[in-house]
Amino acid sequence: MRFLLTFLILLLPFSAAADERVSAFALDNGLQVVVIEDRRAPVVVHMVWYRVGAADETSGESGLAHFLEHLMFKGTKTMAPGEFSQRVSAQGGSDNAFTAWDYTAYFQRVAADRLDMVMGMEADRMVNLTLAQGDVDTERNVVLEERATRVESDPGGLFSEQRQATMYLNHPYGRPIIGWRHEIEALSRDAALKFYKAHYAPDNAILVVAGDVTPDEVRELAQRHYGPIPAHGGIGGRVRPAEPPQIAERRVVMQDDRVGQPYLVRSYLAPSRQTGSQADPAALVVLAQLLGGAGPNSALSRALQFDSRLAVQTNAYYDPTGYDHSTLTLIVVPAPGITLAEAETALDAVLEDFLATGVNPGDFSTIMARIKAQQIYAQDSTMGVARRYGTALTSGLTVGDEIAWPEILQSVTPDQVMEAARKVLDRKQSTTGWLRKDIDQ
Amino acid sequence: MIARLFALFALVAMPVSAEVAVQEVTTDGGLTAWLVEAPEIPFVALEIRFRGGTSLDVPGKEGAVSLMAGLLEEGAGNLDALGFAAARDALAASYRFGARTDSLSVSARFLSENRDEAVDLLRLAMVDPSFSADAVERVRGQMLAGLRADAQDPSVLAGIAFARAGFGDHVYARPSDGTPESISALTVDDIRAAHRATMARDRAYIAAVGDISAADLAPILDKLLGDLPATGAPLPGPATVALDGQVIVETFPSPQSVILFGHEGLREDDPDFFPAFVVSEILGGGRFGTRLMTEVREKRGLTYGIGAGLSIMDHAALVTGQVQTANGTVKDTIDVIRAEWARIPEITPEELEAAKTYLTGAYPLRWDGNANIARALVGLQLSGYPRDYPSKRNTYIEAVTLEDANRAARRVFDPERLSFVVVGNPVGLGSP
């Protein structure tokens, strides 16, 4: 099959920042390939990411992308159910998969010389999935148990699902990735196969290989295994129902007997990284750290945990990557005797003060040093680096965007942070959730 | 880092061994540490464990060691909590202090460019923590909030009930984060006493992986640990494992039940350890193809995940497992687990080979990432393994015969003693 190599087109040879050696190219059938060289251990991570996730499901079929992820282990024309994972573990490797709103990804971590084998199997199930009705029915129960474990057994899980649904009036980000229970119960074999045929194809996938490999090796293997799979050709853009502008703040007050410690969560709709336009999200990453993500170097922690003692814990979180949107989220866990209402008032006072006084220069330089160091520490995890590229490329970004990101992050200025803060910290574009056991909390 | 011997790996068939080039470093102050030099990324991962951990909590002072560990970064030397955090983050260093049942862990990462300053600051936290009244109240509040949340978490409740059932009056039976009552009553003196009892040179195990040489590491270690007490509090004695076929139900309002199960196991120095370890992988390794995963999840769809294995603590050795299932299927799940326990000594040659191939193949894959390797190396030291263990370990797995496996299976896995703790609202669980 070597002659097929002539069909390769080398799209973008990249040489990233000092220690991260990234190359990217594409096959004729549209499969995008990213290779990250890391020679520290004779290990390789092989991942296939599909540009399809829970937000691409049809309304009424929530959980289908995740259900299909489970079913992908149930066999192909030449592989028995469960055989995929057994073959990987027979080689000492591990494998798994994960689903999010914007992507579904499958990975194996194996000795570097087993790349050929796992690639062959992953290519096989890109097109040859077969599903026995009995396996589908059993797996549906597994997913229902997964939902019970992850969501229903934990009031925090249910609360998060309720808040997410409240944040989006129209966009499918409001739907739980695992699916609503009543819709999981109705997911069928036919629906799964239809979804599979509509979305699983080389021209809707990204191959990420990270570890002890060269781009040439990956190119040859990818061509051999994925090259012969025809492009789908008909997979259109991902146009999801758009969210209308939010003009009124929303609230979720949830009471559950199982709540041991009440807390409040405030989320603001925020932009996400878009190709060629990453400066605002970079400023929001710094903003989240300044507000609550950097412990005592953050405004919320200092005001509420150290000064007023109204809170025992505070945090802030912003994920810059998302195909359509993201959110900036603030969390306050009130001290005993402090009600959620009092905690919320205190939270708003801190935000108001932040908007009025601006960035604390000491915090800013500390946080920028931290961000820079995190980029160095992050290289310690090959899997983590591979995930970054997979997430970016399934979220509408390019390899070039991802390579540029660390520097964009490091060049954020206090003015950019304040501008982003003024845009995003608007209560009209927020959802506030209270989770409590009793009405007087 | 992994030695280049691994170039051979691509050419030969498995089994392979983990050729980790571990150096032993002895300091002028008499400390020893294991070091793997890995200059590829400009930082060092340093892992220190002090044997003892929360098992050294004095009766009535449960949670003191955990609270103490939570306070090490909350002010030290002339720095208050805010000052310490600012100094640490300006250096972009990261320190984590963890209180475990058998050890207190210090996990540090620091950049090559400011290594000396980062070490000085870590030393301050370890040797000269302030334990100011202000910080104590703040962290105590966080721990109490955590305990309030734990009190409503069925997995945590199951763990507490399992320890209580399994360890009788041994210190292991007590919750390592204490209780609201014990935490509320702790004084600054209790916390200082916990610091002296746990963080002492005679019980320190050290590994460093990253951009540092042996010559540079030794003086750093003397600086970090030299001013700690030479000896700490005596360690507790062995625990008697009291799991003898009980089924304990704790009612909790949840759609699912958390089930912990297990009984006494065996230690690493037992001649049957490796056979039993391979058997436990066949039974309960938390991956597809293992017996429990096949029977409980794949065939019956009763759970999202199930696993079981040997859990070895300093003063007790157990076989334990965990599963979550709907309240209505708790009885079915327990029946399947019991049946699998009874079926263990029927290991087939194919199962044994598959497990050995998996274990020997997976072992070298573990050794990646500086922080990961540092943790693994300290773990080996605490278990008493020699420095060349990573290169030998697969030969011990390879040596397990079918006869060994089935003998160990019969000896170690006992369906009569297999005990269950269920937290939830299980249906149909009468007296066993």
UniProtKB/TrEMBL annotation, chain A:
<dbReference type="InterPro" id="IPR001431">
    <property type="entry name" value="Pept_M16_Zn_BS"/>
</dbReference>
<keyword id="KW-0732">Signal</keyword>
<keyword id="KW-0378">Hydrolase</keyword>
<keyword id="KW-0862">Zinc</keyword>
<keyword id="KW-0479">Metal-binding</keyword>
<dbReference type="GO" id="GO:0004222">
    <property type="term" value="F:metalloendopeptidase activity"/>
</dbReference>
<dbReference type="GO" id="GO:0046872">
    <property type="term" value="F:metal ion binding"/>
</dbReference>
<dbReference type="GO" id="GO:0006508">
    <property type="term" value="P:proteolysis"/>
</dbReference>
<protein>
    <submittedName>
        <fullName>Zinc protease</fullName>
    </submittedName>
</protein>
<keyword id="KW-0645">Protease</keyword>
<comment type="similarity">
    <text>Belongs to the peptidase M16 family.</text>
</comment>
<dbReference type="InterPro" id="IPR011249">
    <property type="entry name" value="Metalloenz_LuxS/M16"/>
</dbReference>
<dbReference type="InterPro" id="IPR011765">
    <property type="entry name" value="Pept_M16_N"/>
</dbReference>
<dbReference type="InterPro" id="IPR050626">
    <property type="entry name" value="Peptidase_M16"/>
</dbReference>
<dbReference type="Pfam" id="PF00675">
    <property type="entry name" value="Peptidase_M16"/>
</dbReference>
<feature type="signal peptide">
    <location>
        <begin position="1"/>
        <end position="18"/>
    </location>
</feature>
<keyword id="KW-0482">Metalloprotease</keyword>
<dbReference type="InterPro" id="IPR007863">
    <property type="entry name" value="Peptidase_M16_C"/>
</dbReference>
<dbReference type="Pfam" id="PF05193">
    <property type="entry name" value="Peptidase_M16_C"/>
</dbReference>
<feature type="domain" description="Peptidase M16 C-terminal">
    <location>
        <begin position="187"/>
        <end position="368"/>
    </location>
</feature>
<feature type="domain" description="Peptidase M16 N-terminal">
    <location>
        <begin position="33"/>
        <end position="178"/>
    </location>
</feature>
Automatic annotation (TrEMBL), chain B:
<feature type="signal peptide">
    <location>
        <begin position="1"/>
        <end position="18"/>
    </location>
</feature>
<keyword id="KW-0645">Protease</keyword>
<keyword id="KW-0732">Signal</keyword>
<dbReference type="InterPro" id="IPR007863">
    <property type="entry name" value="Peptidase_M16_C"/>
</dbReference>
<dbReference type="InterPro" id="IPR011249">
    <property type="entry name" value="Metalloenz_LuxS/M16"/>
</dbReference>
<dbReference type="GO" id="GO:0008233">
    <property type="term" value="F:peptidase activity"/>
</dbReference>
<dbReference type="GO" id="GO:0006508">
    <property type="term" value="P:proteolysis"/>
</dbReference>
<dbReference type="GO" id="GO:0046872">
    <property type="term" value="F:metal ion binding"/>
</dbReference>
<feature type="domain" description="Peptidase M16 C-terminal">
    <location>
        <begin position="186"/>
        <end position="358"/>
    </location>
</feature>
<protein>
    <submittedName>
        <fullName>Zinc protease</fullName>
    </submittedName>
</protein>
<dbReference type="Pfam" id="PF05193">
    <property type="entry name" value="Peptidase_M16_C"/>
</dbReference>
<dbReference type="InterPro" id="IPR050361">
    <property type="entry name" value="MPP/UQCRC_Complex"/>
</dbReference>
<keyword id="KW-0378">Hydrolase</keyword>
